[in-house]
Automatic annotation (TrEMBL):
Belongs to the class-II aminoacyl-tRNA synthetase family. This is Threonine--tRNA ligase. Gene3D superfamilies: Anticodon-binding domain (3.40.50.800), Bira Bifunctional Protein, Domain 2 (3.30.930.10). One of its GO terms (molecular function) is metal ion binding. It is an enzyme of class 6 (ligase). PROSITE patterns: AA_TRNA_LIGASE_II. It comes from the Bacteria. The keyword Ligase applies. Its EC number is 6.1.1.3. It comes from Luteipulveratus halotolerans. Residues 44-319 form the Aminoacyl-transfer RNA synthetases class-II family profile domain. The keyword Protein biosynthesis applies. One of its GO terms (cellular component) is cytoplasm. Pfam families: HGTP_anticodon, tRNA-synt_2b.
Amino acid sequence: MNHQQPQALSYDAPPGRDHRELNQDLHVFATDPLVGSGLPLWLPDGAVIRSELERLAADIARADGCQEVYSPVLAKRALYERSGHWAKFADDMFPTMPLSGGGSDDEELVLRPANCPHHALTYAAQQHSYRELPIRYHELAPMFRAERSGVLSGLSRVRQINLDDTHVFCRPDQVADEARRALQSALHAQEVLGMRIDYVRLSRRDDSPAYLGEPAQWAAAEQALREAVAAVGVPEVVEAQGEAAFYGPKLDLQVRDGRGHDETIATVQLDFNQPEAFDLTYAAADGSQQRVVMIHRGTVGSMERVVASLLERYDGRLPLWLAPTQVCVMPVGPDQDDAARRVADDLRAAGLRVRVEHDGSLGARIRASRQRRDAVMAVLGEAEVAAGQVQVTEVASGFHGAVASDVLTRLLRSAYTARGAVAWTA
């Protein structure tokens, strides 16, 4: 897999303030007791950030050969009994919703705590040959956790999680390559986001009888994950014995947030349980039915947690491609209003997010733009209009100077498309 690398974004600054504090200026999300704790409302600027992250996730999934699928957020309780989620996580799931259809039609529906059982049944809906594998299903899917109110926190701990989720179905001989591919994609996503991965955690089994599968199977799977980590050159790996999920070992990409807490951004998880529970097979070369291997992989991560981490990492001043307002155009006075509108129209025609600020003193408008963390400020006075230029300030890079209007559009469009830094000196 070969990803085109954008210009590097700086991520060496220490984490900033808590995202909940930053949100008071940025208006990314809101909460309301009438909606409920842990159920944030995405405001327009937050929706822009989330939409860009979802687009990144979809682009990476497509480049990886994933197939897009959709599945319902509800299912019968029986599905999660079969998958093992009910036995292990019932206390973290929302209560069942009984539906009475009379007699044998009675159903108990539940909000899903995970997407994997749906993807397992998506795979099972058709017969598969060894030649088709690996099959990778991708979905940007909501799932639900009945988190206690005491642990809920802004966007970092919520009750509805919107997850960039992929499940791979492959042969045993493909596991190491698929784990490497998944890890490469997750690291690529974090590089694009400018997020430093502090370390990767390999969660292993111990001698507890709670783990499913044979010890030899686990040992081979753990070794495959080690090989994947070695292949991509992760700087630090921490092995955590006894920390694996009951159904398989996993890799977690870890970052430290603005409060010094470790957060999991993306995962690569092997699963021995669901292929058995749902009898997932493929036709081998000799015609026999063989058990498929299932891998859970996250690339960008959950929208809520990633947005919280990004806000804290950048102290609210997101890279151009993520910024809700990419350019704030400000005429010095009314005589430059028409020119400011023309500049804004050209930028919008190039697909950029622009706002034009006319009201109030120029100083007040600049302060408001800085407080909103707009990516670029573009000021037009009499001299700039006469020269066909704008005075540009990008706080994140420290750039300040006069730029021709058409050059500004080209530079910003190029940086936005590449999800990279603006090449001001180009």
